[in-house]
């Protein structure tokens, strides 16, 4: 939507990013921008570099070339190419905190209750007041529909409930954007829907999100912009209606016909 946010820097801007694992070049110059309130979906075949792009974006992985800007502020690097690493530890923490990830396999801590899982990082990483965090954590667990599960352990929950707990945990950091890596792929179809509902509710709240997904219906329903990655390059991108309704590249057409 046009308005004030057009004059603000994007929440996240990735410019011409290159990333290799040894001799394997996984990202070959990828640019993606998410403005405040944008939902950007990343689609593409397995191995096309989607997870790598998310992990580079919040500095879980190093990249060798290109820029990453968080709220207009470029990541500061030391070294070049294979020797390039983030230079400012506080900036790394700020970006990881503000670009909160939700993983395919939930990655909840098995030895902690659901409430403790949600409270852990705000208390230990951000040093926030425990009581304040607990109030927020309980409200978030209510919001994702598992307010009655505060005291149970992850193993006692269904996959869909675990993933909703993981979303509450990501939100507890009060991030500027959420990064989802195939949030529904590990779930049975009937459990996918409960997670999709939560993601749609977040999109309706104008949250900034980047979502890697194989669920084309989810991508079509929530995205402002869809990016199709192929072998480490953007093959095609655009608004969901256009991309799904009138794909131009043969590769995207093939990909879409194979996933429906
Ligand atoms: P996607 O998420 O689109 O399926 P990935 O980003 O996971 O793709 O992987 C892209 C490519 O990078 C694949 O060829 C994969 O095997 C390779 N790759 C991913 N992670 C590593 C790693 N830690 N070490 C070496 N190669 C990796
Ligand atoms: Mg992946």
TrEMBL record:
Domain ABC transporter: 12-256
UniProt cross-references to InterPro entries, sorted A to Z: AAA+_ATPase, ABC_ATPase_HisP-typ, ABC_transporter-like_ATP-bd, ABC_transporter-like_CS, MetN_ABC_transporter-like, P-loop_NTPase
Gene3D superfamilies assigned: P-loop containing nucleotide triphosphate hydrolases
Membrane topology per record: Peripheral membrane protein
Locations listed in the record: Cell membrane
GO CC annotation: plasma membrane
Keywords: ATP-binding, Cell membrane, Membrane, Nucleotide-binding, Transport
GO function term, MF aspect, one: ABC-type amino acid transporter activity
The UniProt record lists the keyword Transcription regulation: no
Membership in a protein family: Belongs to the ABC transporter superfamily.
This protein's name: Amino acid ABC transporter ATP-binding protein (PAAT family)
């Amino acid at each position: 939507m046009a308005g004030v946010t057009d004059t603000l820097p994007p929440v996240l801007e990735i410019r011409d990013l290159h990333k290799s694992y040894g001799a394997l070049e996984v990202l070959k110059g990828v640019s993606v921008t998410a403005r405040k309130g944008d939902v950007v979906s990343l689609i593409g075949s397995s191995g096309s570099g989607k997870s790598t792009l998310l992990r580079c974006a919040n500095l879980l992985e190093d990249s060798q070339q290109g820029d990453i800007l968080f709220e207009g502020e470029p990541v500061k690097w030391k070294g070049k190419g294979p020797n390039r690493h983030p230079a400012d530890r506080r900036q790394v923490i700020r970006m990881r905190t503000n670009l909160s990830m939700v993983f395919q396999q939930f990655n909840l801590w098995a030895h902690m209750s659901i409430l403790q899982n949600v409270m852990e990082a705000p208390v230990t990483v951000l040093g926030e007041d425990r009581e304040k965090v607990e109030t927020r954590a309980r409200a978030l667990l209510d919001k994702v529909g598992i307010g009655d599960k505060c005291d149970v352990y992850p193993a006692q929950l269904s996959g869909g409930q675990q993933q909703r707990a993981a979303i509450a945990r990501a939100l507890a950091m009060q991030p500027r954007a959420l990064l989802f890596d195939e949030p529904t792929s590990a779930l049975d179809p009937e459990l996918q829907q409960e997670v999709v509902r939560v993601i749609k509710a977040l999109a309706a709240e104008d949250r900034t999100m980047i979502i890697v997904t194989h669920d084309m219906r989810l991508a079509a329903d929530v995205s402002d912009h869809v990016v199709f990655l192929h072998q480490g390059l953007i093959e095609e991108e655009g608004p969901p209606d256009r991309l799904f309704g009138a794909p131009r590249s043969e590769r995207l057409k093939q990909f879409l016909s194979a996933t429906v």
